[in-house]
Each structure stands twice: as C-alpha cells, then as structure tokens.
Amino acid sequence: MANREKITFQWLGAAHYHILYKNCRIILDPLYTRLPGDFPHLELTANTINWIDCLLLTHAHLDHSHDFPNLLSTFDAKAYAPDRYLSDLKNKKIYPDYTFDVSKCHSLEKIKGHMFKANEIEITPFQIGTEQIDFWFIRSMFIRPWRHKKPQAIPYGLKWLGHYLFCNCFAYHFHFPSIEKSMLYFGNLTDQVDELDIVDRVHILAIPYCPANNKWLKQSQFLINRFKPDVTLVHHFDNFMHPYTLAKYLDLNHYQKAISEKCPNARLLFSKFCKSIEIDDILNHKTSRSPL
C-alpha cells in the first residue's frame, strides 16, 4: 500500500480473526484452545499476544467465546458481547476465577445499530437472531468421540451444548475510512438481517461455512445476493474440534461448487489457517478453481 497504513487480517481457525491497523489490534470470536490434543497447533496463542485494543464477540457458543474471558482478564481492552453473556461473567456464573474491568465491557443489545471506533476503524454491531444447529451435528458430538477412542472429549461436548445454545447473535459492520471500503462480518449464518436494512452492499462479506446448519447453502446464497460483495471471505472449521469435526466441514471444493452454482458471479476467498493477508489482496482476489 502506497502512502497509507496496511490493514491486515489473520485467521486462526473457526470464526477467530485478528484485524491489525496501525497500532490497533481487533480480535473477533477468540478461540485459541484446541481440544483434544492441541491439533492443529497454533503458534500464536493468548500468551504470545502483546496487546489488544478491541475484543468482539458475535455470540456465546464455546467455539466462538472460549478464550474471551481470559483475554478480557489479561488485557486492558474494550470488549463487546451479548448482554446475557457479559452479565454472567460479571456475576461469576461462568469463569469465576477471572477478574476484569467491568466499565470496559459493552452490551451489544444496548448499543446495536450505533457506531463505535477502534482507532480509525468504524464498527457497528447489528443483531441477527439466533444460530441454528442441526440435530445430526449434536448427535455426532457423542458418537464420533467413541469412534475415535477419545471419550474424554464428551464432557466438553456436553458443556458446549449447554453453554448458551440459544443465544442472541450479532454481525459487525466495519468501515475502513483510510481506504473507504467496508466489510460485514458474520460469526454464524442467518437470513434474519432486518436490522441491517441501512446497509445496501459491502466490499467484503465474511461468512462461515457451517454445515451444522442444514440451511447453510440457502442462507449463504441469501447473504451473498443481499449484500452484493466484491469478495466473499469464507472462514471454516480447521479440525480444532476433532473428533467432532466431520469431513464435510473440510471439503471446501464441495462448498465452492455448491455456492458457484447458486451464485455464479460470487468471488470466493477461503481464509488460510494462521496466515496473514492484507485487505488489498482480499479485494483484488480472483476466484481460483480450487480453494485448497
């Protein structure tokens, strides 16, 4: 980038992103914890980060929020999360060993639709309903650990299921004034976007590949057609929940073919595990035949 600061994205699996701009670090849906077996291994962990300026959570499911309390306790960062989750953290109903500055925690229900800033980046949260989870995925969380001879993974699955199974979900709209580009980030798929009526289109649409939702193709198509992005940035599971993760989560060729049939003009870019990419490279991306 000539004559301006770089805007860099780093994807750490699932819906976990870092956005870096100048001396500002924004973290979305932090999930450093790999269970069981620390696979795939993350070189960058919560213990290797020097600073965080803004901590964002889309919803409270453990595969999005697991490391949120640790980061909140460790860093002097502004934090934004659903109201029920923050209330339970403050009242020590979950993670009672963590302490943090309550004044820096902001309820998304109370500020939704209102813009705030992280450095020069403008961020607006919007409520988008609740995440749908298909029954086959729940069943697999009990069957697959036995098949992989890892029954110790089942208690974590039970905790995951009981941890805000039906909770409010939010999307974040980012505006980057330095380049006059925008991004809309979803941690879950949905077609409940009425609160986003003020957003006509975006340059980057970041969405998950989430086959646990049996409406994933229909809702992905809806979001792409609704927001008409220049590039659709796709995050997905990186096998961090092995042995829960099913093969279809990792079959990106299947995803690309299905989306291309429904949205032939969509430019898809698949996030690369632990890799950094500049926003210019995202915007200039040309879809290849294979995402792998």
Question: How would you portray this structure in words?
Answer:
By secondary structure, this protein is α/β, with parallel strands linked by helices. It has one domain: 4-Layer Sandwich (Metallo-beta-lactamase, Chain A). Helices cover 26% and strands 24% of the residues. It contains ten helices and 14 strands. The strands form two sheets. Strands 6-5-4-3-2-1-14 form a seven-stranded mixed β-sheet. A seven-stranded mixed β-sheet has the order 7-8-9-10-11-12-13. The radius of gyration is 18 Å and the shape is globular.
Architecture, CATH level 2?
Answer: 4-Layer Sandwich
Sheet with the most strands, sense and barrel status: 7 strands, mixed
Described by the principal axes of the CA atoms, the overall outline is: globular
Could you report the average pLDDT, rounded to the nearest whole number?
Answer: 90
Question: How would you briefly describe this protein structure?
Answer:
By secondary structure, the protein is of the alpha/beta class.
Could you name the key traits of this structure?
single chain, 292 residues, alpha/beta, Metallo-beta-lactamase, Chain A, 7-stranded mixed sheet, 24% strand
How would the blueprint of this fold be written?
Elements: E1 7-11, E2 17-21, E3 24-28, E4 54-56, H1 62-65, H2 68-74, E5 78-81, H3 83-90, E6 105-107, H4 108-111, E7 116-118, E8 121-130, H5 135-147, H6 154-162, E9 168-176, E10 181-186, E11 204-208, H7 216-227, E12 231-235, H8 247-250, H9 252-262, E13 268-270, E14 276-278, H10 279-283
